[in-house]
Amino acid sequence: MIVKEILIRERNRKMNKKIVLIDGHSIIHRAFYALPDLTNAEGVHTNAVYGFLMIFFKIMEEEKPDYLAVAFDVHAPTFRHEIYADYKGTRKPMPEELRSQVPLLKEVLTAMGITIMEKAGLEADDILGTIASRMEREGLEVSVVSGDRDLLQLATDKIMIRIPLTKQGRTEVLSYHSKDVLAQYHITPSQVIDLKSLMGDASDNIPGVPGIGEKTAVRILADYGTLENAYDHIGEIKPPKAQKAMTEHRDLAEMSKVLATIDKNGDIDFRLEDTRLGNIYTQQAYEWYKKLGFKNMLSRFGEAAKTSTPEDAFEICRDRAEAEKLFEKAASYEKIGFSLLGDNGACLGVSLSFDETTVMIPAEEDTDAPYLTEQLGRLLMKVTAAYTCNLKDALHYLTIPSADHLNDVLIAAYLINPLKNDYDYDDVANEYLGLTVPDRNEIAGKKSNRELFDGSRNDFARYCSYIAYVSLRSGEALLVKLRSQGMDSLYRQIEMPLVTVLCDMEKTGVRVASDELVSYGRQLGTEILGLEEKIYAEAGESFNLNSPKQLGQILFEKMKMPNGKKTKTGYSTAADVLEKLAPDYPFVAGILEYRKLMKLKSTYADGLLPYIGTDGRIHGTLNQMITATGRISSTEPNLQNIPIRMEQGREIRKAFIPKDGFLFVDADYSQIELRILASLSGDENLIQAYKEAKDIHRITASQVFHTPFDEVTDLQRRNAKAVNFGIVYGISSFGLSQGLSISRKEAEKYIDSYFETYPGVKKFLDDTVADAKKNGYVTTYFGRRRPIPELSSGNFMQRSFGERVAMNSPIQGTAADIMKIAMIRVHDALCASHMRSRIVLQIHDELLVETDPEEKEQVKNILADAMTHAADLAVPLEIDIQEGPNWLEAK
User: Do residues 356 and 311 make contact, with C-beta atoms less than 8 angstroms apart?
Assistant: First the structure.
């Protein structure tokens, strides 16, 4: 037996084998605090697991080990607790968001075939120390990965301690052999134990010697080497204060050394061969990565995780006669799944799924695009129900009289979990079918639909067919869940009808005068040049105005301005820093003005030009599955962010014009969120104020500041307005004090006075937060749910954020629902009357209609009726309607 061990040891030495040992709890703890909170589609916290795996793969790539194991602590007393009952007694409990991820990580590691080591009575450090020492004796190279510098005591010429550090979002790993420990800390690895014996360790509640800090401890060890030798020369210890402390507390020092010493001879059943690394990219691991939402890690798996999949039964049909049979057969089913993929207005292919059949028909000579869209349109009007993903995209190519029976499974999934804003068919398959299927990126990479179609017809068919396959099989489960959560009406009566409205708005687009944009850009350019010259003159030199480093040097070194915050990369020149300086320093006000003009020029004057199509219109994208509150968002470009408050920003709206012979009619809700607050809270004073159609801000000012209504000053009204709207967003006294430039105490008094005036509002907000903590979500007037996982966070700042979200979401979400209902009613009324006028923009609480002058009064009546009657609230909804030859004048 001894001979065999010697032979194995020599073989390992000759082959230069390497083992990596990872301190599981230490690394997952470090990852948890290094990354922002992340959750998967089910709301499960995942940031610690994700961060651990990022470090894991970095270590794997750098070390390329032959063997690997991860050690975890077990929640049980160890021999150290028997020696000192208060060992680790000062540690705070692990946050629940982190605690819940430890078993998740173990599941993932097990799925990857990674050995997990843990034993009651031993800490992970003892397991690591024991295995590392054994493996060193057997001739292996050893790397121990931990965030705990206590493990530096294990470093030798053959055992390397690796400590990951996260800096500016990037992870680097420090490496220590024994010589590196000495060079960095001026002590040997074994002296790490003696150091802890003298100075103690607050994190583990190791007492050490009271009164001896790190500098004194290092000096003592430099003179005497070990704790024992220091006590052999106790009469020589300097300073006298340290000598006295060591004499009086020898028992603590000696106990601390035992506590700090990692056990290298633990009773651990360990077989090296069990830790040999095989294929870590298993099917089980792949499914875990998909479930946890780690999409950017899936490419690591390559083909390794492929097993039999639904696509084994996918077919491609290129024959027109067969296609007609396929459409005919599909029509005999009550429910089908379908997908239509296109690019730049051209249909490229259609997939149909029913029963066990899933077939893709490409747009080719025999089955061209007009044929496919016509046949699909007819089919959809024959079946009872049809399911797809991104219905709005398909409707761009279809002409059908009604879409009432069509279902978008992604919208359903979004309603169930609005915190996830990037749902796709693979997410739905994973969550509702228990299937792991390739996502679009795995099939197509960054190729457009056209590039995929032209490059690989088989891959195009896979992608197109997966959408139809998953849509059909998940659709009913999603609708059942919506009904169970009380959101069936929201889905049927608001979200699905809205799809058609948004599609028509995207098709219509909004006309933009490119010559106006160019002229506006030139005007801004002239102002920017003038500002630059003025700034350089005042600075006494030219510099890069867009360089924070150079600007910081000018402001805080050359011009000696106060309150400079220096970071590793230079002084901070963020907006909040400059805004505090601007009132006293015109030079800084000029910098802020320069930034504002540059933003206007780059984002709008220059940035909008590439989006103008050949028809002179911008056809942006309207999204209903991004915001957690249900608000519609605008992308490519974002037309909801066009400035309105600054004069120079408002000018951009002149470039938005109706088509020739038309005008714009603009309708904007008046104080919709405050009206919703009044209605939801049932506050009698607030409701009465709105019913009497009084100036709500002046009323609030009168009551909060105890001033007669007619004597309220403009400043008091402005401050009351800030309080009114701030309450809607759960503003704190600190936030209000910052916004109004008043003391926190004064702001707190404003808020208290507000709640005294409107006690119903206070009760509503408190009850809403309490219900949210109990249920985990809040709901809008129309039943839309908004989960708030932050309320159960162990982090105070996260919980506070969650409370603000709980206060605001029912109000903002209800406003979003009301606007959607209004859009549907306006759109349907315009279409039903066969009018030429069309909605072209929706910006939060505002609708812009491109209007035929002959239809102007009818359009105004439709807007007034649809918008003011979109919801039956306790207070009336009011709108402001304007008209004009461009968006600026209509607003």
Answer: no
Provide the token pair at 613: 């199509």
| The CATH number, out of the four listed (3.40.50.720, 3.30.420.10, 3.40.1740.10, 3.40.50.300), of the domain defined by the range 311-484 | 3.30.420.10
190-262 CATH: 1.10.150.20
* Residues 822-825: contacts with CB under 8 Å, at least 24 apart: 822/847, 822/866, 822/867, 822/870, 823/498, 823/501, 823/847, 824/494, 824/497, 824/498, 824/501, 825/862, 825/865, 825/866, 825/870
- Is 818 within 8 Å of 877 (Cβ atoms)? yes
Reported as a single tens digit per residue, the pLDDT across 235-282 is 888 888 988 889 888 888 888 888 888 889 988 989 999 999 999 998
Cα three-residue angle 559-560-561, rounded to 5 degrees: 95
State the pLDDT at residue 14.
42
Distance CA(480)–CA(534), nearest Å, equals 65
**What one-character DSSP code corresponds to residue 435?**
-
**Residue 618 CA neighbour count, 13 Å, CB half:** 25
Kindly report, residue by residue over 100-142, the tens digit of the pLDDT.
999 999 999 999 999 999 988 888 899 999 999 999 999 999 9
Q: How many whole angstroms separate alpha carbon 669 and alpha carbon 826? A: 14
Closest CA to 155 of 269, 28, 264, 267: 264
Domain boundaries, the chain: 7-181+266-296, 190-262, 311-484, 513-607, 673-810
| Per-residue confidence band for 792, with pLDDT thresholds at 50, 70 and 90 | confident
Residue 338: what are its φ and ψ, rounded to 5°? -150, 160
HSE value, Cβ hemisphere, 13 Å, CA-based, for 220:
35
- Cα radius of gyration (the chain): 34
Q: Are 839 and 826 in contact (CB under 8 A)?
A: yes
> Rounded to whole angstroms, how far apart are CA atoms 320 and 328?
12
- Report the CATH fold assignment for 673-810: DNA polymerase; domain 1 (1.10.150)
Phi-psi region of 344 (alpha: psi -120 to 50; beta: other; left: phi over 0): left
> Which of 459, 455, 475, 462 shows the shortest CA–CA distance to 359?
462
Helix (H, G, I), strand (E, B) or coil at 623: strand
Residue with tokens 């800030």, as numbered in its chain: 722
In the CATH scheme, what is the homologous superfamily, with its name and number, of domain 513-607? Taq DNA Polymerase; Chain T, domain 4 (1.20.1060.10)
DSSP letter string, 319-340: -HHHHHHHHHHHHTSSEEEEEE
CATH code of domain 7-181+266-296 = 3.40.50.1010
Domains 190-262 and 673-810 share a fold: yes
Maximal C-alpha separation, the chain: 106
Burial class (CB within 10 angstroms; exposed 0-12, middle 13-18, buried 19+) of 753: middle
Give the distance, in angstroms, between the CA of residue 400 and the centroid of all CA atoms in the same chain.
37
Q: Do 849 and 837 contact (CB within 8 A), yes or no? A: yes
Q: From CA 114, how far away is CA 276, in angstroms rounded? A: 9
